[in-house]
C-alpha cells in the first residue's frame, strides 16, 4: 500500500515536472521566435537601406546621362532647365529610401513638373519635359517594385470622364500620320515641307491632318505660312499616351 502511494506520488511529480519542462520550452521557443523576427526585421531594414542607397546613386547618374542625351541643347534655357530638372529628380529619388510613399506626395511632384512647364511655356520645351516625365515615372515604377508605393483604387473618378474626350482627344490622335506629326513637333517647330518629308504626305492630304490637329488645339500656326508648333494640350496628350502604352505593353 505504501509502495503504491509512493509510486503514485512519483508519477504525479513526474507529470508536474514534464508540464514545467513543456512550459519552459514553449516560453523559450516564443523568445526565439520573437528574437528571430527582430533579427529578420533588422537585417531586412539594413539590406533595404543599402539597396536604396545604391539604387538612388544609380538613378541620379542615369538621370544626368539621360537629360544630357535627350534634352534640346541648342536652347538658351538649356543650362538653367537642366539644373532645375536634376534638382527636382534628385529630390524625388530620395523617396525610394522611405518606408512608404503616399499618393499625395507623388502627385505633388507631378504638379511641380507641370508648374515648371508653365513657367517656361516654350513650344520647343516638349522634348525636355517628356524626358523629365519619363524619368520621374521610372522612379514611381521603382517605388512600386520596392512595394513602398501603390496606387489606390478610386484615386481617379472614372465616371467623371466627359464623353467629349472622344472628339477633343481620342479622335485627333487616332491616326498614325497625326501622331507622327505630334511627335515631330514635340522636338521643335517645323514647316509644311519638313512635315511633308516626315509623313510622306503631300498637299491636301497633309493639310487635312494638320487641320484636324489645329481644330482640336493640339498644334498651332502663328501665321498662314508659318511653322507649326505643338501646344500644351498636345504635350499632355503625348505624355498621356506614353503612360498608357508603358502600363499596357506587358499586360
**Largest β-sheet summary:** 2 strands, antiparallel
Number of helix segments? 9
Taking pLDDT < 50 over at least 5 consecutive residues as the criterion, the unreliable ranges are: none
Find the structural class using helix and strand composition.
mainly alpha
Q: Into which percentage range does the β-strand content fall?
A: under 5%
Please tell me what the overall shape is. Answer: elongated
Calculate the terminal CA-CA distance, rounded to whole Å: 82 Å
Task: Kindly report the spatial arrangement of strands forming the biggest sheet.
Answer: 1-2
Cα gyration radius (Å): 31 Å
Q: Could you report the average pLDDT, rounded to the nearest whole number?
A: 78
Relative helix content: over 70%
Q: State the order of secondary-structure elements, H for helix, E for strand.
A: HHHHHHHHEEH
Number of β-strand runs: 2
Walk me through the structure.
- The chain has 251 residues and is mainly α.
- The chain contains 9 helices and 2 strands, in the order ααααααααββα.
- It has a two-stranded antiparallel sheet.
- α1 runs antiparallel to α2 and α6 packs across α8.
- It starts with a helix and ends with a helix.
Notable features of this structure?
mainly alpha; elongated; 251 residues; 2% strand
A few lines on this structure:
This protein is mainly α and 251 residues long. The chain is built from nine helices and two strands, in the order ααααααααββα. Strand 1 (219-221) and strand 2 form a beta hairpin.
Helix and strand arrangement:
Elements: H1 2-70, H2 78-93, H3 103-120, H4 126-145, H5 165-173, H6 176-187, H7 192-199, H8 203-215, E1 219-221, E2 228-230, H9 232-248
Antiparallel strand pairs: 1-2
Amino acid at each position: 500500500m505504501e509502495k503504491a502511494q509512493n509510486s503514485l506520488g512519483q508519477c504525479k511529480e513526474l507529470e508536474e515536472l514534464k508540464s514545467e519542462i513543456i512550459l519552459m520550452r514553449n516560453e523559450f521557443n516564443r523568445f526565439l521566435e520573437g528574437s528571430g523576427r527582430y533579427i529578420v526585421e533588422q537585417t531586412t531594414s539594413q539590406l533595404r537601406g543599402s539597396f536604396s542607397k545604391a539604387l538612388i546613386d544609380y538613378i541620379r547618374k542615369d538621370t544626368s546621362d539621360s537629360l544630357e542625351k535627350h534634352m534640346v541643347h541648342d536652347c538658351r534655357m538649356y543650362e538653367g532647365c537642366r539644373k532645375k530638372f536634376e534638382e527636382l529628380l534628385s529630390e524625388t529619388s530620395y523617396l525610394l529610401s522611405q518606408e512608404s510613399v503616399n499618393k499625395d506626395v507623388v502627385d505633388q511632384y507631378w504638379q511641380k513638373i507641370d508648374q515648371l512647364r508653365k513657367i517656361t511655356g516654350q513650344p520647343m520645351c516638349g522634348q525636355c519635359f517628356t524626358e523629365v516625365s519619363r524619368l520621374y515615372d521610372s522612379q514611381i515604377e521603382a517605388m512600386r517594385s520596392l512595394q513602398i508605393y501603390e496606387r489606390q483604387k478610386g484615386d481617379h473618378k472614372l465616371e467623371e470622364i466627359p464623353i467629349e474626350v472622344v472628339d477633343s482627344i481620342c479622335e485627333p490622335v487616332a491616326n498614325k500620320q497625326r501622331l507622327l506629326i505630334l511627335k515631330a513637333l514635340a522636338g521643335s517647330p517645323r514647316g509644311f515641307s519638313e512635315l511633308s518629308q516626315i509623313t510622306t504626305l503631300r498637299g491636301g492630304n497633309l493639310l487635312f491632318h494638320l487641320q484636324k490637329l489645329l481644330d482640336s488645339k493640339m498644334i498651332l500656326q502663328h501665321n498662314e505660312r508659318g511653322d507649326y508648333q505643338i501646344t500644351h494640350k498636345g504635350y499632355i496628350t503625348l505624355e498621356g499616351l506614353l503612360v498608357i502604352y508603358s502600363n499596357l505593353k506587358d499586360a
